[in-house]
Every structure is written in structure tokens, then in C-alpha cells.
Write a structure and sequence with these properties.
Length: 322
């Protein structure tokens, strides 16, 4: 659906309601541009926008299908910038990704949102900075990219806390962390990496100054956003390395615990073997065994078994097997 439509002129929003069929003509002045925002649009809704602004068919296909990787495509009619949004779902301890596609053309910007990310705050913050609004639709692109990248920060902080808790559990003697949980967290890190890392290349192109639609005044702003993304990418790569180390440590601890269990089982088997051997011999019922006719034969046999078992138990316990 169409969430909002507005024309910005001389650094401020033009009052009144804007109709879609009037949007293209309303922004033909060099000092004005239109911003149209859509959220999970239907094919019919997007066709109306397509007819009004004559967007490239390949760009339209990407917008309807969604599930695109972060990228920047250049067409004759303008630019298509694809961004991945991210938010941390606290109860489930997982990362939820969304998608924003931005069409930037001569005198207009069209944003298509998929997921729960919202741009209302972005629009309101930009409207409070008329000096940026006067730079045209590229200023709105900067505001969107900056907001998306800023939202990566809280996700990384929450993920860092999860990894710290996971590391503490792995090295705790009281709890056993299953490898499945570590792999699940590693998938979350990889998912975030796939959303953040590809943003570097589009930002690099936006700040280089070779795109006519990006004013030179905005290049430092895009460079600042790129610096933030590069820092986030380094942190996420550190998370990947940390999880690899945590997984190796966890598997080592599991192996050590298994070895300890095997030693304990072997130690008890050795202790039990002694009475088993003695009772097995007496169980054969030889007629001429002198102990069978002796009053103290059975007590002596039982005492010998207990003494040997106690000796083995003490010996194995000192050796650390029990």
C-alpha cells in the first residue's frame, strides 16, 4: 500500500494532499522533488507508480519479488538501491531482516518496504533539516541509508551479549552447551553479515562522486555512513571467529567429559571383575575344593573380595579415575 506521498520544495514539505497521478508533474521544478513511500505493495499499486514515473522494468521486477541482496544498480532513469534492515527480537533471541528498495530519479524518490521497518521517523528527521532537503532526493536517500545502518548498532550490541553469555556457558562446569545452540547462533551471525557487508560497495560508489544524481555536498555524509558500516563488518567478522573458537572449545570439553566417563566405567568394571572372578570359580562347584568344607571358607572369600575391591577403589581414586 502507499504509505505517504509528498512534494518537497525549497527545503520544506509542500502543504496539502498529493495524488499519485499528479506526483510526476508536481516535482518538475528543479527546486522540488517527490517522495513516495510504499509498504509491501500489490502488483496493481506498483503498476500505477510505474506508469507515473516510467521506472525500468528490471528495477520494478526486483521491487515486487523482494529478497534481493544489498546492491546499487544504475539505469538510464536513475538508481536502484537495495538495503537490508535488521532488528533484534528479544524474546526469541534472533535477528529479523527486512528490505528497503529505493528508486532515485530526476526529481523523485520512491521507497518500497518489505518487513516491519518504518520510515516515518526518517522522514520527520529529514524535514527538520531544510539545508539537506534542498539538496534534492539524494538527501532522502542519505537519510534512509543512515537510519538503516544506525539500526545495525543495537542488533550488534544484543548479539555481542548473547555471545558473551554463550561463551560463559561453554566454560562453565555446571552447564553443558549443545553444539546445536552454537551453530544456531552462528547462523544468526552469518545472516547479519549477509545483510551488512554488501552495503559497503553501494556506499563506496555513492561517496566517490561519479554518480550525477548525488551532489558533491552529500559525499562526506555517505563516507561517514560507510565508516560505520566498515566498523560493523569488522565486529561481525570478530563474532564469526569467536563462535568458531567457542565451538572448538565446546567440542574439546565434550571429548574430555566423554574420556572421563570412559575411565570411570573402566574403573568400576575393574573393581566388579574381582568378585565376579572369585564367585565364578566357586560357582563351578568342584567337589575337592578345601574351602567348601571349612567353616570360615565363605567368610574368608567374601572378605578377600571386599579387601581387593577396596584396594582397587583406593588406587583408582588416587589416580583420578573415580
Amino acid at each position: 500500500m502507499i504509505v505517504d506521498m509528498a512534494v518537497y520544495e525549497n527545503g520544506s514539505r509542500r502543504p496539502g494532499k498529493l495524488e499519485l497521478e499528479d506526483a510526476y508533474e508536481a516535482c518538475r521544478d528543479e527546486k522540488s522533488f517527490a517522495w513516495i513511500e510504499l509498504h509491501d505493495p500489490t502488483g496493481a499499486e506498483f503498476d500505477s507508480v510505474l506508469r507515473e514515473f516510467n521506472l525500468h522494468e528490471l528495477a520494478v521486477e526486483d521491487a515486487i519479488q523482494a529478497h534481493q541482496r544489498p546492491k546499487l544498480d544504475v539505469y538510464d532513469e536513475g538508481l536502484l538501491v537495495v538495503l537490508k534492515t535488521a532488528r533484534y527480537v528479544e524474546p526469541d533471541e534472533r535477528i529479523e531482516l527486512g528490505e528497503i528498495l529505493v528508486f532515485l530519479g530526476d526529481g523523485f524518490i520512491i521507497t518500497v518496504r518489505h518487513g516491519k521497518a518504518a520510515l516515518n521517523d526518517v522522514r520527520h528527521r529529514l524535514e527538520k533539516r531544510p539545508e539537506l532537503v534542498r539538496l534534492g532526493p539524494a538527501a532522502a536517500l542519505y537519510a534512509i541509508v543512515d537510519d538503516v545502518v544506525d539500526d545495525y548498532g543495537p542488533v550488534i550490541v544484543a548479539l555481542e551479549q548473547d555471545l558473551a553469555d554463550l561463551e560463559a556457558d561453554v566454560f562453565s562446569e555446571e552447564r553443558t552447551t549443545p553444539p546445536k545452540l552454537i551453530y544456531a547462533k552462528k547462523r544468526e551471525v552469518l545472516k547479519l553479515y549477509s545483510a551488512v557487508a554488501p552495503v559497503v560497495d553501494p556506499l563506496d560508489r555513492l561517496e566517490q562522486g561519479d554518480l550525477e544524481m548525488i551532489p558533491d555536498e552529500l559525499r562526506p555524509y555517505f563516507r561517514d555512513v560507510e565508516d560505520h558500516v566498515l566498523r560493523y563488518v569488522r565486529e561481525i567478522e570478530g563474532f564469526r571467529e569467536m563462535l568458531t573458537s567457542v565451538l572448538a572449545a565446546n567440542l574439546t570439553q565434550v571429548s574430555v567429559r566423554q574420556n572421563e566417563d570412559v575411565r570411570k566405567i573402566s574403573a568400576w568394571a575393574a573393581i566388579i571383575a574381582v568378585p565376579t572372578l572369585i564367585t565364578g570359580i566357586y560357582g563351578m562347584n568342584f567337589e575337592h575344593m578345601p574351602e567348601l568344607g571349612w567353616r570360615f571358607g565363605y567368610p574368608l572369600a567374601l572378605g578377600a573380595m571386599a579387601a581387593v575391591c577396596l584396594f582397587l577403589y583406593t588406587l583408582l581414586r588416587r589416580a583420578g579415575w573415580l
